[in-house]
Write a structure and sequence with these properties.
193 residues; alpha+beta; 8-stranded mixed beta sheet
Length: 193
């Protein structure tokens, strides 16, 4: 079995918890992983969202994806459509590995579904839509697991000062990895270990 097969088996052993609530809007994202031939640990593709004053996730680190739109046949289709719009990459050319449990916003009524795909072989050249994505980068799972990169992110929301666990990134010009994306990443790592 390949490492991709091992990850797919781990994801499919788990029965993902889904958020089905009329009070929530729904979004879907794609976690794209790549495993180099000489390694067993996957690297995860992250995007840095473009800056938009009306976007609550403006400038944050995340995965390609977005809100479910009329015409999307299911949440995975949303992730596929959004990935193509944001990165110019068709996920149908990648290997579908499984899905994670949905995560809900702590302060906004949104549920996010995450679908995991593996890129086997050479990484394609992405065509970044700069209106939606400022930058992309890969981060190895073993970097995320290193305790010296773990920290706390302080933020202000609805007149409150709050804290959230986060991962400090190796690039000084990037914000921390936190929030819904952090929750999805940690769920993925727990599932495959």
């Amino acid at each position: 079995m390949s490492e991709y097969d091992n990850i797919s088996a781990a994801l499919n052993r788990k029965n993902p918890e889904l958020i089905i609530s009329p009070g929530y809007s729904h979004a879907a994202v794609a976690m794209i992983i790549h495993i180099k031939e000489d390694e067993k640990e996957p690297s995860i593709l992250f995007i840095e969202r473009a800056l938009h004053p009306k976007d609550p996730w403006s400038g944050n680190i995340g995965f390609p994806g977005g809100r479910v739109e009329q015409g999307d046949t299911d949440y995975n289709q949303t992730a596929i459509r959004e990935t193509e719009e944001e990165l110019g990459f068709n996920l149908n050319s990648a290997k579908y590995l499984g899905r994670l449990s949905d995560v809900g916003g702590s302060h906004l009524a949104i549920a996010v579904s995450c679908f995991v795909y593996g890129i086997e072989g050479k990484i394609p050249e992405f065509k970044i839509n700069k209106r939606e994505v400022q930058d992309i980068f890969w981060l190895p799972v073993n970097y995320i697991l290193n305790p010296k990169h773990c920290s706390t992110h302080k933020f202000h929301f609805a007149d409150e000062n709050l804290e959230s666990p986060c991962i400090k990134l190796p690039m000084s010009d990037k914000p921390v990895l936190w929030g819904l994306t952090y929750k999805l990443v940690m769920d993925f790592i727990r599932t495959i270990q």
